[in-house]
Amino acid sequence: MSTTADPQLAPSPGAPREVVRVQVPERSMASELRAIKIVWKRELIRYRSDRIRIATTLVQPLLFLFVLGSGLQSLSAASTHGVNLKTFIFPGILCISVMFTAMFSAASIVWDREFGFLREMMVAPVRRSSIVLGKCLGGATVASFQGVIVLCLAGAVHVPYAPTLILGVFVLQVLLAFAITAFGVMVAARITQMQSFMGVMQMVVMPMFFISGALFPVSGLPGWLGVLNRIDPLTYAVDPMRRLVFSHLHVSRIAQRVLDPGVTWWSWHVPAVLEAGIILALGLVMLAVAIWEFSATD
Amino acid sequence: MSEATTTAPHNGAGASGPSKAIVVEHLEKSFGEVKAVRGVDFEVETGEVFGFLGPNGAGKTTTINMCCTLTKPTGGTALVAGHDVVRERDDVRRNIGLVFQETTLDGYMTAEQNLRLHAELYGVQSSLVPARMRQVMEMVGLWERKDSPVRTFSGGMKRRLEIARGLMHSPRVLFLDEPTIGLDPQTRRSIWSYIRTLKESEEITIFMTTHYMDEAEWCDRIAIMDQGVIVALDSPEALKAQVGADRIRIETEDDDAAIASLLERFAIEAVISEGAVTFRIPSGEEFVPRLFAELGVPIRSVSVSRPTLDDVFMSHTGSSIRDVEESGNSDRNKIMMQMMSGGGRR
After folding, report:
1. For residues B158 and A259, what is the distance between their CA atoms, to the nearest angstrom?
2. B316 in any annotated domain
């Protein structure tokens, strides 16, 4: 590939020793792809080297799943119609572990800015969109991987390891991870202080989690909560995941109807594909906003 | 597609003068009402080590930022490596290396990973990356530490690694903004020896800012900047020759009597500085015999020193660079006020 550049390798006359000369090519599709790839790869390198982060982001989902799930089991036994509470909240817990990891990935932009590294990326002769896209894809990959770790616990909460189930849940995790990272990057473009950034993310992520129906069925909610629930984007990630899980369980019809009613818009059942599409569309819109914001800065 | 077109821009500066690495004309930058840079002109030859010298707040960093496309000028033009910094921003970026005042390394990655990331972002030919990486890291003496995370490096090592990274893509112009700030004297010296080595081996133009007078001596040419304008521009030797007068320091048995005698017999105003009677006079060495013969106060020792760049700075601005720096915020505010009210030198 680089044979045409080889004459450049020749040492210049009078040079004390052979100098390896390289060249920076003009911007092209290929160079943009390389930039996207290396920014993506950096997220992976940093995630892999940070084992404490892998462990600590697992604590929260495990608490929800095994402490809250087990503790409330006796209270809820009457209304879950024989389904273990842990099984019911499992899809929601998958979502929150993905969300938190994605959030931390996006937060690294704020750190990068504080420690100066963002500047190194901003002055490179590549498009800002490549940097932002690489960052979002990296965050999505890392968060999906964290989700897979939690997904491995399926057996412990009586969810079968069926290939279609695993695959379907994984795809939904990737979409969610991408959307949350894009959201985080979009916020990080404006908020330059770590404390403020984490504050904003907590303020958005926790209500999203509680309202989404991660911990309760979405039918028969009080009117105001029902409306909030349908507005909450996370609803459309939790619901298709739960449908997938329940389609692989052997539960009574009544349990199915109570626990997995599906999201409705004015009594119209929203198809799972549309729900996944909503997450993807939101992710793309936020990515576009993030790119626009970073391109506008000097 | 990219390979065929790569050679053209590399040599393409020929059209706009192959010997000029940087051409700056009437460059200006205002931040609101404050004029940080008020119309500077200079040219930097290819292969030169060109230094910008001046106190903090003189406009050095703003000027360097405009040359390396980080800040848009509010007036004037700058051509770097033959490309306009505003209209051909990417072409400029491909041809320059940057080392900032603050570190911009990723502490959680190893030295090698940091350099690899840089090479990928700049699109350096993959087949040449390992050899180039080894070369730049050996030059700054960090090859043995390539697998260590950067957060374990000392300040001096980080700065060396940044210089190596700035060179990864064989830039034609390397910008160094205060490359030795905050480093101990030994590390500062080693950074300078790398910079001189670079000049020999890489056919590179180096543009740097500093507020250390002694370091500016290493440059081929320096521009002295104060309050947004260039007050002097020449080689360090030529600048010092302009000042002319030497500095003489004498230790005497009675300093007060010596000062009185100097004023009375030679009409020289001397002061006590750092424990010795100090004054300036042209051709100091020729003055020493007269001093011994006519002073009338016993002299214990004499030293004659040639003008320094600090003297040059003082002769152009009326104050020493250290005075300007140490005057703190209140004076900087005064300077700002002057700048805002438009009472400039120009």
Report:
1. 57
2. no
How many residues make up chain B in this entry? 346
Would you state the pLDDT for residue A11?
38
Q: Which of A22, A28, A42 sits opposite B117 (nearest CB)?
A: A42
Q: Is B69 on the interface with A (CB under 8 A)?
A: yes
Name the domain boundary from B171, B199, B234.
B234
Q: Which two tokens stand for residue A266?
A: 């004015």
Across the interface, do B93 and A116 touch by the CB < 8 Å criterion?
no
| Chain A touched by B193 (CB under 8 Å) | no
pLDDT digits (tens, 9 = 90+) for A77-90: 777 777 788 888 89
From the list A120, A132, A123, A129, the residue with the least C-alpha distance to B70 is A123
Q: What is the total residue count of chain A?
A: 298
Check whether A172 has a pLDDT greater than 90: yes
Q: Look at A1 and B120 and tell me if their CB atoms are within 8 Å.
A: no
Q: Among partner residues A20, A25, A120, which is closest to B135 by beta-carbon distance?
A: A20
CATH number at residue B301: 3.30.70.260
Q: How far apart are CA B7 and CA A8, in angstroms?
A: 9
CATH number at residue B187: 3.40.50.300
Which chain B residue lies closest to A120 (C-alpha atoms)? B104
On whether the CB atoms of residues B203 and A12 are closer than 8 A, the answer is yes
List phi, psi (to 5°) of A231.
Answer: -80, -30
Name the closest residue on chain A to residue B68, using Cα atoms.
Answer: A123
pLDDT at B203: 81
Question: A161 touching B, CB under 8 A?
Answer: no
Q: Model confidence over B7-19: pLDDT tens digits?
A: 334 444 444 445 7
Looking at the structure, tell me whether residues B82 and B136 fall in a common domain.
yes
Taking a contact as any Cβ pair under 8 Å apart, which residues of chain A between 104 and 143 contact chain B?
112, 115-117, 119-121, 123-126
Tell me: do B114 and B165 sit in the same domain.
Answer: yes
Mutation site for B-interface testing, chosen from A48, A120, A132 by largest number of B Cβ within 10 Å: A120
A111 vs A185: CA distance, rounded Å:
12
* Closest in B1, B4, B203 to A12, CB measured: B203
Judge contact between B21 and B46, C-beta under 8 A: yes
Complex ipTM, two decimals? 0.81
As a whole number, the mean pLDDT across chain B is 81
* Interface membership of A36 toward B (CB under 8 Å): no
- Assess if residue A22 is contained within a domain: no
Report the pLDDT value the prediction gives residue A289, as an integer from 0 to 100.
94
Looking at residues A159-173, what average pLDDT do you find? 90
- State residue A211 phi and psi, 5-degree precision: -80, -25
Quick check: B274 contacting A, CB < 8 Å?
A: no
A265 vs A290 pLDDT, higher one: A290
Give residue for tokens 């990417």: B90
Q: What is the pLDDT of residues B20-49, one digit of tens each?
A: 899 999 999 988 888 889 989 999 998 889
Judge if B202 and B284 occupy the same domain: no
In a domain, B297, yes or no: yes
Domain containing A290 equals 28-296
